Amino acid sequence: MSRDTKRELCWYQFDDTEAIARHLEKMAGRGWLLEGVDNWLFTYRRAEPEQVKYTVTFFPEASVFDPAITEGQETYVDYCRAAGWELAAVYGPLQYFRSTRPDPTPIETDEAVKLSAIRRTMRKTAVFSYVFLLLLPAVYLLLALPLLCVPLFLNWFRHDPMDFFSSTSKLATLTLMAGIALFAAGMLLDYLVWVLLSKRAVARGGTCLRPHTRFRLGLTAVMMALCAAVLAVLFFDPPLAGMRPMLIVLLLLYGGVMLLGRWVLRHLKKRGTSRGGTKGWYFAFALAAGVAVGVGMPFLTGALNGARVIHMGRKPVETYTKTYENVPWTITRDVFYDDLPVTLEDLGYAVTPEDHCTYEAEVSRSPLAVHAQYTQDALSTDSELPPLTYQTYDTRWPWLLEQSWEKLLPDDKAPYDPWPLQRMEPAPWGAEEAYREFGYASYYLLYPDRIVTFRLGGEPAQEQLDAIVRALRP
Fold first, then answer.
1. Pick from 293, 252, 312: nearest CA to 147
2. What are 90-122's pLDDT values in tens digits?
3. What is the H or E stretch that residue 358 is in?
4. For the chain, how many helices (H) and strands (E)?
5. DSSP 87
C-alpha cells in the first residue's frame, strides 16, 4: 500500500449517515480524503489537511452490481454539484459527497423522501443480512456439519450432556451461535424502532431521528470480541490440539475465498458487465466455491491426516501391532502411559510387559464441569487381563448433575432388556444413589458434586470394588 493511500475498516451501519459524515470530516482534517468505498473498507488518499463537509445520501435504484453509476445517479450527481457538493465515492445505493464550502446547501430537504430512500436501501442490504444471521444459528444447530458425519449439535446437548458441558470448545461454539442471534436481533430491533419513531416524527413535520450509533458500534465491538474469543478457545483447547493446523487451513481457505470473491466482483464491474450479468456470475462463483469447499473438505482432511499433519485426539506414546497367523491382516493400536487413579495392579492383577497394556486418561474441562474418562486395557490378544474402564464427572450445578445422571443411566424400562438395572443400597458406597447393570457388571454412583461409573471385566471381588470406590469417590 502506498504512503499516499490508506484503508480503514468501516463499522458503521448504512443508515448511520451523520456518524459516517463526522468521521470522514475528522479524517479530512488529518489529511485524508475519501476516495473509494468497498463493502467494509474506506479508501483514502493523502491531501492537505482542511475542513471538509461530508454527507451520505441514498439512491435505492442503484446496486453494488452496477458496473458504474447509473444515468439516474449521474443526474442526481449533477444536481448535487450545482449545490456545491462533489461526489467522493459510490458504493451501490450509497453516495458519499463532500464540499469545501463552509455552509453548503443541504442535499436532502424532504424528510419523507429521505426516510423512504433509507428504508428501501436498508431492506436490500442490512436487513437482509441480519435476517440471515438470525437464521444461521438455527440452521447450524439443526444441521451441524452433516457432510463431515458430525452428530447433530442438539444431540450433543440433549443426549450426552456430560460430554457437551465439559467441552470448552462446544460451549464456546454454542455461545457464539447465541451471540450471533442476539447481535442480529438487537440490530434488527434497533432499526425497526428507529423506523417507527422516525415515521411518527416525519408525519408530525419533524425530521428523521438520529440512529443509536454508539449502541450499534458497541454491539458490533462485543460481537467481534466474542468471535475472537471463540476462535482463541478453538485454537488453544487441548482436546483440539491436533486439529490446529486444520483450523489454520480453514481460516486461510475461507479468507482466500472471500478475497477471491471480492476480486471477481471488481473484475466483472471493470469489464463493464451488466448488472444482471455481474449478479449472475457472482452468485455462480459463490455457489461453485461453496460446493468446492463442502466436497473438498473431507478429501483435504484425509490428506492432512494421512500426512500426519493433523490427528484426532492425542498422539500416542507408541503403537502396538499384532499379526495374526493364517490371516492376511494386522491390527495396530495406540498405546498410552497416562497416570490413572486406580489400575489393575492396584486391584491385585499381575500385569506383565507381554500384556501390552495401554493406560489412557482423557480429561475435558470447562467452567461448568470436568469429565474424566480412564481406561486400562491389555492390547495383546493372548492376555487374560480384564479391561478396566471408569469415569468421573464433577460439577457444582445441581441441574446439570441431575440431567447428566438421568441421561447416563441405562433405560431400565426398555422392552426385552436382557441386562436389567438394579438399585443398590447407596450407604456402603458413601453415595446418594447407586445402581448396578447386571451382565456388564457396570456400576453407577451419584455423589453431591460427582458422578462415578466403572466397569471391570468379569465379576469383581468386593475388595476390588472397595479399592475402586476409594480412589474415585470425592
1. 293
2. 998 999 999 998 888 888 889 999 999 999 999
3. strand 357-365
4. 12, 15
5. E
